[in-house]
Every structure is written in C-alpha cells, then in structure tokens.
Amino acid sequence: MSIPNGERRPDPVASGFGIFDRSCDKDDEPAIQANYVLRATEDRMRILVIEDDSTVASFLKKRLGEDGHLVDHAADGQEGLLLASDKDYEAMIIDRMLPGIDGLTVVQTVRDSGKQTPILILSALGEVDDKVRGLKAGGDDYLVKPFAYSELMARVEALVRRFSSQKERTSIKVAGLRIDLLSREVSRDDQKIDLKPREFLLLEYLMRAFRPGSHAYDAPGSGMGLSFRPPDECHRRPHQPATAKG
Q1: Domains identified in the chain, total number
Q2: What is residue 94's predicted lDDT score, i.e. its pLDDT?
Q3: pLDDT tens-place string over residues 87-97
Q4: pTM greater than the 0.70 cutoff
Q5: Which of 64, 80, 124, 207 is deepest in the core (most CB within 10 A)?
Q6: Which of 150, 168, 186 is the last residue of a domain?
C-alpha cells in the first residue's frame, strides 16, 4: 500500500524509513531510546499490530521489540481478527486500509465482541472526517502517517494507562490471580476458575486484604502473595465440632 505525501507532511527522516517523521534531533535519539528501554522493563506489554505495509510492520515490530514489548503481527484484517479474538492484548495498532477486511470493520468487530482493549488506528487518511469515522467505529485514538515513533508510543502508553485505571476499579489482581467484580469471574494466568458465590466472596475478601499496598500484604511474614488452588483440587474434610475437655 502506497502512502501519499502531501505538502502538509513533515520532513521524513533521511536515514531509515522515509515514511516516518523526524521526531527529534539526532543528538536526542539515544536518550529517547534509552528512556523507552528503561520503561519497558517496568511496563512490558503484549501488542497486536495489524498492518499490511511490510515496511511499517517491520519497523514497528523492531522498535516495539527493542523496547521490551511482545508483538504479534497480522498482515490483513482476517488474520488480525483471529488473533484479536484468540488472545488478550494490552493494546492494538490497526491500519485503516487493509486488504480483505478493512481496518474500520476490524475495529467494529472487536468492539462488538465485547473487548475493550485500547485501539490506536494508524492511517494515511488524515482528514477530519476520516478521523471522526475511525473514532466512531470504536478506535480510542487516531494517528496519521507518516508518524514519529515517539509520538505513537506516547499515545499507546496513554491509552493503556487510561484503560488500566478504569479496569482497576472493577477488578482486583494479586500476582497472577485476578477477579472481575462486575462479571464475577476469576482467573489465574488467564485460565478461568469456577467458584461458588461464597467462595468468590471469600476470595475477594482475601485479595483485598493481601493485594499490594494493603497492611496485610506489607506485614512481616505475609509472604507477599497468595497460593490459591481451585476448589476441585482442594481436599475438603467434614467440619469437626469442637469438644470441651475435662
């Protein structure tokens, strides 16, 4: 897919890929890259990139990988939808003009499936109406090509922060164990665990007490974590009433 270059486009970077904007002076690039690498160790994300342009896709996979993120790539809308429905991602970067199923249809289908994963739409179409259609389709942000990687990453991080803060209000997570307070679902390392209502309430109580920042979590000898087994793996014994001696 060719990318039109209008007069309003910023000057491309001379070295490297010509479709990406000059986001900083050459002297500043090492510092910016080091800053992203440092943050990547703390905020590693799994990101889905749906992009048919091999140059753009290779660039994004390379830079995101250097920053420590896990990247899955799809070259068309159909493959992208399969990955989006099969896996959970912290963010998706979706090109608007894709072969087969176009990008807006991909975004709409993802939203119709109930997934609220942050989506950044990437497109050479930069008119106001184009952006409005992208956002109304379900995109959370819209970035026009050519783009600066630093701006793309800043936008993705902002979307993930916003989504995470909203998610924290309706879920509790300790280590790999997570409960959703709205759907009343429990999972550990993305594996669903079936609990009865009383078991869910007990687990919620324990996780509120032992999640990071709580007094019980920080107390000496707390172990800073929970070891939880599904009910069917636990050995239950009948309750033995206490008996008085003497």
Answers
A1: 2
A2: 97
A3: 889 999 999 99
A4: no
A5: 80
A6: 168
